[in-house]
Amino acid sequence: xxxxxxxxxxxxxxxxxxxxxxxxxxxxxxxxxxxxxxxxxxxxxxxxxxxxxxxxxxxxxxxxxxxxxxxxxxxxxxxxxxxxxxxxxxxxxxxxxxxxxxxxxxxxxxxxxxxxxxxxxxxxxxxxxxxxxxxxxxxxxxxxxxxxxxxxxxxxxxxxxxxxxxxxxxxxxxxxxxxxxxxxxxxxxxxxxxxxxxxxxxx
Length: 203
Fold this sequence. Notes:
Helix content: 40-55%
Low-confidence stretches: 5-11
Distance between the termini: 31 Å
Structural class: alpha/beta
Number of strands: 5
Strand content: 5-15%
Mean pLDDT: 92
Order of helices and strands: HEHEHEHEHHHHEH
Shape: globular
Number of helices: 9
């Protein structure tokens, strides 16, 4: 059983938590999530990695270097074109305090699960088109557009997205082999959002 299936962490829900993001899009999303639940997530810090490349291993290594300052850490990164995606996810499994919320190939797949149940590999271009149509914007990576989309996502039913993502994750786990880089399209971000909602409920 994989690390990402098994644990509902046993630590106290008021512990210090770090969400370390590989890019600005992920940072914006989780900051918007935190704003929505600000009273219950005061112990959660969201930041983007200081590493210039922001590749998955770099994100994980930075989390490892910070683990003495936090009780629980989450690395959030995309597959993109990085070749160390699988290595990074496996490295995380060696550190009990560190978890991983990955997307293959991009967090935009997680965004679409809030309003679509499409399965199977979806190209980045198609993901952008779906987001653009849903929210009436020309989606791109500019901060203003990402912030607008992430604000709108907070108004949708996240439990629908979590359930869709969970089903997709379990499908890939059974059918797509051991390399997470082969799990297209797939995301484990739902594990982090469910964890955050538990913190918020325990405020």
